[in-house]
Structure formats: structure tokens, C-alpha cells
Amino acid sequence: MQEQENQQAEKVEIKEAAPEVQLDGVVQGETVQTSAPEAAQAAAPAQDTAEQVIAKLEAKVQELQDSFMRAKAEGENIRRRAQEDISKAHKFAIEGFAEAMVPVKDSLEMALKIDTPSIEALKEGVEMTLKQLSAAFEKNRLNEVSPVQGDKLDPMKHQAISMVPAEQEANTVVTVLQKGYTIADRLLRPALVTVAQGK
Prior knowledge:
single chain; 199 residues; alpha+beta; three-stranded antiparallel beta sheet
């Protein structure tokens, strides 16, 4: 019995001797009650921050959506304009050449209106018309392919009609029967030529 009383007295002394340590509203050995408004105030900054983050993210999503829609519309406009440009290019591809050819036609019509033209006047008119035509060809990069005698046969620009005996190297041009033409370095029509036979 005496021993039990001693043990209880020791427990009481230990409880009295233990220091009280406060841990965020909890005192060791007992719970401290905090009022509801204080808890709400403590939680409010965290909740406001989360709402602000959500609002910022929603604004960013809206901004990106707007940017995407603008870019998509701009891409559609560019595609549509490009199609219109291609269509116009096909439709009016020879516009420049046609502009250069109109004066040639005018010259020919004026020559035919003269009732009694002299040979000299006709020749002069034809020469002027040919100059106009040559200028129109040059302006539109339509160039002659006219090899001279002795040039090597170029199958990319010349078409051999026949082989004739000649005093020159084999497979060289002897005569040009018809000029050829290139347009912007692309063959439009090959020059018709005769070539020398091998000896």
C-alpha cells in the first residue's frame, strides 16, 4: 500500500516538472481550441492564391485560344490569296508577250491599208515590223537557236533532218533549214539542220 502511494506521488511530481511546449495551437498534453473565424482567416490566403492561379491559367488559355484562332484565320487567308494569285498567273501568263505583240499587228495592218505600195516602202515596213517582233521576243526571253556551219550537233537544241557528204567533221551542222527557239532556257522548238556524214 505504501508502495502504491509512493508511485502516485512520483507521477504527480513528474507531471509538475515537465515543461510546457507550445506547438502551433497545441500545448503538450492538452489541445488548445481556436475560434472558427481565426481558422478561416488562416486558410483564406491559401484559398485566394489557388483561385488567383486558376484565374491566371484560364486567362492564359483564353489568350492562347485567341492567338490560335487568329493564326488559323491568317493561314486560311494566305492560302486563299495564293490560290487566287496562281489562278491569275495561269489566266494572264502571256499578258506581257501579248502587249509586245500588239504593235507588230498594228504595223502589219497599216502596211495592208496602203493602196499602191512601192517595193521599197513594203521592204522598209517589213524590216520595221521584224525589228518590233525581235524586240518583243527579246523582251520576253524568246531566243533564237541558229547554229552556224561547222557547229557540233546538239541533240538538245538541234534536230538533224538528213546527213549529207561534206568537207567537215562528221556530225557537225552543214546548213540550217529552220531556226529553233528557246524560252527562258527551255527548248520551244529545235533548229532543223542537215549534218555532215562521216568520211
